[in-house]
């Protein structure tokens, strides 16, 4: 029987630790509030999510180029972008227990001392709301002081705007075109939580798509549809996704439209990615403040203008969490229950595991040869010779490995291996010489089971 959704996050957190996806950061020192490290399987999952994002956003597009900008930029960047003055949440403190809460999220918050009560409804009185800036401050160079203050970037987007002119001048691009980057961002979130959903250090995949202003609406529609579809192409169940258009009072003052791709997590609907119309706000502001002309000159029309920007911006950690939550299933079989992650093979941390049926008769050596061939063909592989074959399959099901290959006595005679499919548990006999091509096709044609 399917387990209630409320258990699901606990099960995912426990699976992540047990199988090496995600660990609490600095665990041996008691951890550090809502900060996580990715273990051997987690780092593979995240790397594959980033690869899939980069492939869809850059490699497969003729009109998008990549960038990797610095985390610490000139602090003027954040004054001009509005983050120093405005990147803040209204916070209230409890005068009794000193806990701090977002004023706009009080309805969902709990008193840490009396979790059955909301803040302010317990014995503690709340302060007036005060703005709390979310940027992490640091100092550049050996001297601490106002002259050396710098910030860890709270979004990767500004690095793209700062390099707009460099990219225009060094690459053959003209609007409509995009600049994409993946990188770490930092926000001193007051209420991080729900595992890696909201943390203080996280990775973003952002793309600024620069368009002639008259084409703004067309490209907004295009990127909303494209980003919504991307998640489904990678196997997310459509009924768990929705595109929510922001109301006017949710929009930043410079924005003319925004929509979020939302996912129905075990803790409710949450933002996975935002697609925003940023107009020419950022280029315009940086142009004015730096004295550099960041307008695009169109050699055909002889017109000089600030392009408008459509920005798809998603969190890589949130994507990885979403793929895990969505892939998780406890399947009731005849004799027992199996835990299986139905990852799309493109993002599964391990694509193929290879097992010798027994540790003798030359099977381990033959299995090693086969796995070496698969590694050279570019597959992420795992070798396992310990325990009963059924248990080895189950261990791979639990981490989402879509294919297992077994070398048995027949293989030693006829060169044919058994390929076992994670989702259907069906087995097929495939000549070892054709294995790489067979698996490549199975990855390409994979469909999520109904
Ligand atoms: N440049 C626009 C921008 O940064 P955002 O909605 O603040 O927009 C984009 O962030 C995405 O980054 C979010 O949709 C979310 O997936 C991810 N994100 C934002 N804050 C996060 C946090 N504290 N922890 C994890 N992911 C976060």
What does this entry show, briefly?
The chain is of the alpha+beta class and 450 residues long.
Structure in words:
- The chain has a 7-stranded mixed beta sheet. The protein has a 5-stranded mixed beta sheet with strand order 20-19-21-22-23, with helices on both faces.
- The chain has 450 residues and is an alpha+beta fold.
- Helix 2 (40-59) packs across helix 9.
- It has helices at 5-18, 40-59, 76-81, 83-86, 157-162, 164-170, 216-233, 281-290, 316-327, 363-376, 389-399, 409-414, 435-444, and strands at 22-24, 36-38, 64-66, 88-93, 100-102, 130-133, 137-139, 149-151, 177-186, 201-211, 241-245, 257-265, 268-279, 296-298, 303-305, 308-315, 328-332, 337-341, 352-356, 381-383, 403-407, 416-421, 427-431.
- Helix content is 31%, strand content 27%.
- It is globular, with a radius of gyration of 25 Å.
- The longest helix has 20 residues, at 40-59.
- The mean pLDDT is 94.
- Among the domains are: 46-76 and 147-324, 2-Layer Sandwich (BirA Bifunctional Protein, domain 2); 350-444, Rossmann fold.
- The structure holds glycyl-adenosine-5'-phosphate.
- Glycyl-adenosine-5'-phosphate binds next to strand 10, strand 13, strand 16 and helix 9.
Q: What structural class should be given to the helix and strand makeup?
A: alpha+beta
Hetero ligands:
glycyl-adenosine-5'-phosphate
In CATH terms, the superfamily of the domain at 46-76 and 147-324 is Bira Bifunctional Protein, Domain 2
What overall geometry do the principal axes of the alpha carbons give?
globular
N/C terminus separation: 17 Å
Strand order of the largest sheet: 3-9-10-16-13-12-11
